[in-house]
Amino acid sequence: MSTNAPDSREEHLELPVEELLRRTRPLPPHDGMVIEDLSQEEGAAFLAAVES
User: Fold this and answer.
1) In angstroms, how far is the first alpha carbon of the chain from the final one?
2) CA–CA separation, 38 vs 12, rounded Å?
3) Are 14 and 20 in contact (CB under 8 A)?
4) Is the pLDDT of residue 1 over 70?
5) Which of 10, 12, 26, 43 has the greatest number of CB atoms lying within 10 Å of its CB?
């Protein structure tokens, strides 16, 4: 079995700020982000997961 030697040139995985800004999208309307039909316990569990 053969393996390729690692590339010796330095490669950056980060994108420039201009490219990141170009790729952004606006958030959907608030009504489109509301999770309906959650019980109080499910809502609390969701918030706990998001905040952790």
Assistant:
1) 44
2) 43
3) no
4) no
5) 43
